[in-house]
Structures are given as structure tokens and as C-alpha cells.
Amino acid sequence: MHLGANVRISKIGLCVTVGFFILLYLYSTRGPSYSSIDNRYVISLKALLAGSIRAAKMGGSEVVLVHNQNRLNIESKGKTKEGVNDPVTAADYRSHCAMYHSLIEAFPKITVISEEMSKGCDQIEVPSLKDTIKELDQYGIGSDIAANANDVTVWIDPLDATKEFTENLLQYVTTMVCVAIKGEPVIGVIFKPFEPKTTYWAWVDHGVSPNLRNLPQPKEGRNPVLIVSRSHAGRVHNASKLALGDNVQVISAAGSGYKSLEVAVGNATAYVHMTAIKKWDVCAGAAIISALGGSVTPLSGPPPMGFGPTDSTLLNSGLLATMQDHKWYLDKFYNV
Ligand SMILES: *[C@@H]1O[C@H](CO)[C@@H](O)[C@H](O)[C@H]1NC(C)=O
Ligand SMILES: *[C@@H]1O[C@H](CO)[C@@H](O)[C@H](O)[C@H]1NC(C)=O
Prior knowledge:
By secondary structure, this protein is α+β, with helices and mostly antiparallel strands. It contains 9 helices and 15 strands. It has helices at about 1-30, 45-75, 85-105, 130-135, 160-165, 235-245, 255-265, 280-290, 325-335; strands spanning about 40-45, 110-115, 145-150, 150-160, 175-180, 185-190, 200-205, 205-210, 225-230, 250-255, 270-275, 275-280, 295, 315, 320. A hairpin with a 5-residue loop joins β6 and β7. Its EC number is 3.1.3.25.
């Protein structure tokens, strides 16, 4: 009885197994094959770093182009017509088109989230990705990593510091690209398109651009030097005096990209933002600062911020970026 049942079960098992192999055979010869994965879903992060640098530079060139054209217009006509020739709209839009399309054409299966929306974009010439990858090879970024396109979210900011762009405070203007893997920023690119044109990039655990290497070691017990937004400097200044005492120095500046870099290179000890901020303003700086060993969190402290495709694009509770003593700053600001 026992034996009979076992034999019957294994007969059924055999039939199922044989049937499975027949189906597998049919599927692999006729249908889309199991073994040929669509390689557009396999993302080389080295290529994506190159694509991000290329995108940031292309966007930056568009911003400069619009700036120069606009200056010519102002010189020839005395003033620009409102709306018709709004330089921010034009620069934002052209930069978005260049950045978004150069990324999506090279990596069609990734998610790209931009501050701008794309309508009809002009065709523009896209430099070869191979050349950009080759340029990276001189920086010794180590072995490549393959990621699944579904895990990749790229955040782009086609024009950071728009207000300063219109005020000709061009040192604050940047374009930014950030690659998050499973919601975590791992590649950050910040490009300053106006003279002196400068590209800063970092890939966590792989490498950083030469201008972020061999930075001076932060000094122990250094007095806090906060960098804060020009637009709400007064409020942060007051809060910072309350939180940190009179020894605090406050620098007001613009552009989240600009301020993150000042912290990354040690020109400021903390970037403090007390109001809501968009994630495309934050992501690239967060990747660069973490690659260099620092921290970026909401000003209210952890939990960490999610940079995935379905995460909110807004950070409600402010921002703190530091290279050291992060928890000390968080505690100081906690009760203000
Ligand atoms: C900062 O503090 C000064 C002096 O207490 C006050 O006059 C000013 O309104 C405050 N500014 C802001 C933006 O809170
Ligand atoms: C940091 O300060 C130095 C010296 O003032 C300056 O040359 C540099 O542009 C500043 N910022 C960055 C991101 O290097």
C-alpha cells in the first residue's frame, strides 16, 4: 500500500518533470528565450557615471548659451520682453532637454526624474559616450558594477540657483545629475558651467574627481562655519546663534549644489537648510558628500531619505550636510 502510493506519486512527479522540460524546450526555441536577458536592463554604472557627467556638461552648455544670447538681446534692445524671452524658462528648458534626452537615449530603461518636464525638444548633438568613458579611465575608478535598470533612478536638476542666474551671480549656478540605486544616492555630478567651468563628481566606494581628492583634513574643534541660503539667511542666522552660540560663522550663498560643494571641500563645516527642499537639489550633493565620508540627512535627523522612483520628490524637514560631527549638529538644532 505504502509502496504503491510512492510509486504513483513518483510517476506523477516524472510526468510533471518531463512536461516541464518539454514546455521549457518549446519556450526556449519559440518564445522569447530565458537566457537572452534584454541587455538594456543591465546598466553599467561606469557608463552611467560617464553619461551623467556628459549630461551635466551638456545642460551647462545650454545654460551658458541662453545666458550669452540673452545678454546680447539686452545689449541690443535695452531690455527683454517679459515672458517672451524669459531667460530662466529658456535655460531651464533647454538644459532639461539636453540632459534628459542624452540620458534616456543611452539608458532607455532607467527612471529619470527632472525638475523640468519635457515638451518638444530640439535635436542637439550628443558627444560620444565611449569617449567620456575613456576619459574616466585615467582616474582609476576600479572595476565596473552592473545594476538592474529597475533599481536605477536618476535625479536631474537642469539649472540650480535660477534666481542668481537672473541676477548674474553666476558662480552659484550649477547643473546636477545624481544616480540612486535602490533609493540610495551613489553617483553625484555637479557641474559649474560658468568660468571657471568645473566638474565635480563622485561614485561611492569607487572614486572622486581630481578636484575632490587630497582635500585638507578637517581640523578638530573647529568653530562652526554654516553655509545657508541667501533667501532665508536671517532666520537660519538667528536659529544658528541660538543653537550653536556666538562663535558660529554664517555664510550666505545660493544653490544647493554650490553649498554642498563648499561643505565637501571644507570651506564650510555644515550646510543647513531649515525649510522644505526638493530632492533633485539634494541628491548629487548627498552622493558626493557620502563618497567623501560625510553625512546628509534631514535636519530633523534620520530616517534616511529615499531617492527611489516612487518616493516623494520633496523633503519636508530641512537638510543638514556635514563632513564630521553630524550628530552634534543634529542635536544642537533639535531644540531650536
Ligand atoms: C533675527 O533676530 C533679530 C534680533 O533678535 C530680529 O530683529 C530679526 O527679525 C530676526 N530675523 C528673523 C528672520 O527671524
Ligand atoms: C573653497 O575655498 C577656496 C579658497 O577660498 C576656493 O578657491 C574654492 O573655490 C572654494 N570652493 C570649492 C568648491 O573649492
